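Allow me, if you will, to draw on your knowledge of protein folds for a short while. I have a record of one protein: its chain in single-letter code and its fold written as discrete structure tokens. I remain grateful for any guidance, and I place the record below:
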Amino acid sequence: MAESVSGTHPVISDAEFAERGKRLQALVGESEFDILLVNGHEADFGNVRYLSNYWPIFESAGVLVPPSGPLTLLIGPETETYAADRSRIPRIRKLAAYRESADPEYPGVAVSTYSDVFEEAGHPDPVRIGIAGSFATNFVMLEALRAAFPRAEIVRADDALTALRSIKSESELACLREAFRISELAIDAILAELRPGLTELELVGVAQQAMYANGAEYEGMPQYVLSGPNSRHAISRATHRQLRSGEALQLNISARVSGYSSGVGRVVAVGKLDARQRTVIEFCLEAHQEVASWLREGVLARDVAIRFRQFYTDHGHEDLYLYGPVHGLGLIEVEPPWVETTSDYAFAKDMTFQIDTFALSPEIGVRWENGVRILADGVEAFSGRHMELLEIG
């Protein structure tokens, strides 16, 4: 059962953090590498926070995971007191390789080296080093590793963390449910204020105020409030553009609770839309609902992706297809595993995903998005309000 802060919002317990470390150490002991180095940074922090609850800011961070013995949290030179207050891993060491990108030299500041922390972990001369969080491992880290261990082979080991993080505990599910609840409240706040003349960024501010007032620790991602031609952006940021009557508004609102992210994607019309825009929106909603009906334990991921692409073709809307249809969800709003035509795994109970349905026409882009938990006979939806085209103003 999830613990809570002041009896309100769910959190992950110290015991669960410790159990995660032990499970990962067991995988390291069974692997072909001697020791695992898990890296992250402010934007791609999921692996590090999963093991430690530490969320780096400016600097990078890492967790050194030997097959037995204590784990070590690796941080940059500036964040020792912050890390001590946040980390569930007691052993914390400062390394210059994890400093912020402004590249300060920190003269007079005592730091450890990779040689120091590997020796302390019982592996002074590793033959094979696994790296999880390979996209968050930068040139400075790699050069420092190679200098410390010139004979070692450095191999990608991202799958180890993907395997652990894919199946969610009851505490993780509680955090996700709360994050989606808060996101829906933020959408309610947007709808209450929505009118022509407001800017996209003004509505982002409305969403942010509602999130923090209702207990979010942060945003799960930049809030998508994308109007008119800006709605055609699959990945974007809000601007000072003013909303205009007769335009579609793409919303994707994301609150974060105890690290766990949400994404609630809706389509709103500012005034009345023309027939072509309504057709695109309604088709995209139909496709979204179809995907939700296909997901359950045991279904092959690639079969869902193939079926989704064929759905666009069968309905005469191949021209609207951009990507899809599903991606992993947890500490990051988009995390592995993806659901693509090349995905060779089967859905398992308590995996969590975003059904992310996007349609792109010359006039507008449309996104319907909801988070779900995989069950034996279907899904548990984390959000479901306002699943219809709303014409406001």
